[in-house]
Amino acid sequence: MEINTARFLVSNQEVTKCPAPQKPEYAFIGRSNVGKSSLINMLCRSKYLAKTSSTPGKTQLINHFVINEKWYLVDLPGYGYVRSSKAKRDEFSVMITDYVCKRENLMCLFVLIDSRHEPQKIDLEFMEMLANNEVPFAIVFTKADKLGKEKIKTQVENYKTRLLEDWEELPSIFITSAEKREGRDEILQFIDEVGNEWKVEN
């Protein structure tokens, strides 16, 4: 698959106000400052589609983009931003949980993990919530360019080992670098393959 057109559609705070679920949808989420906006821009070959910032917590709404006029790409607020007030964190938590558990056309949620860090409790708990609610998701390791090939391989294997302590099987896993455009083809191919399921069902 190649992305030929990508345009912003709408932002909102409630899943009930999201666009009609008439197209397959793929969402991206992760802890604040994980490189989510940079990854989205890399996938779409755009510098400005998703707003990037050196300040964590920039994304605070559910942002819908239309890709190739055929499917939705969704940029979700990051979770775990410690400088947010408790009220704001709770608000984000409700917004995110409602979206991932109730959005009927969500084909896959891409959970972004900073490859430089060891497994974080907040990420593990979030993925456990997804699994318990049968939300389809994949793991995307970001910022691979910050590590050598052997180090990134070790980090990913450590993460797999940790996950298999609680799970019988692993979700799809991607290794990416927005800086070097690594992982782009693999993610888009995955989206294309998952999208075929939508075509069959609809």
Helix-strand category: alpha/beta
Supply the CATH superfamily name.
P-loop containing nucleotide triphosphate hydrolases
SSE series? EEHEEHEHEHEH
**Residue windows where pLDDT falls under 50 for at least 5 positions:** 53-57
Overall tally of domains: 1
What is the CATH third-level topology name? Rossmann fold
Number of helices: 5
Mean pLDDT: 88
> For the terminal residues, how far apart are their CA atoms?
20 Å
Main sheet, how many strands, which sense, barrel?
A: 7 strands, mixed
Number of strands: 7
CATH architecture: 3-Layer(aba) Sandwich
Shape: globular
* Relative strand content: 15-25%
Short description:
With 202 residues, the protein is α/β, with parallel strands linked by helices. The protein has helices at 36-43, 86-102, 121-132, 149-163, 184-201; strands at 6-12, 25-30, 62-67, 71-75, 106-114, 137-142, 173-175.
Q: Please, could you describe this protein's structure?
A:
The protein is globular, with a radius of gyration of 16 Å. The relative contact order is 0.17. It has a single domain (6-197), classed as Rossmann fold (3-Layer(aba) Sandwich), CATH 3.40.50. It has a 7-stranded mixed β-sheet, with helices on both faces. The chain is built from 5 helices and 7 strands; from the N terminus they run ββαββαβαβαβα. The longest helix is centred in the C-terminal third of the chain and has 18 residues, at 184-201. The chain is of the alpha/beta class and 202 residues long. Strand 5 (106-114), helix 3 and strand 6 form a beta-alpha-beta unit. 35% of the residues lie in helices and 21% in strands.
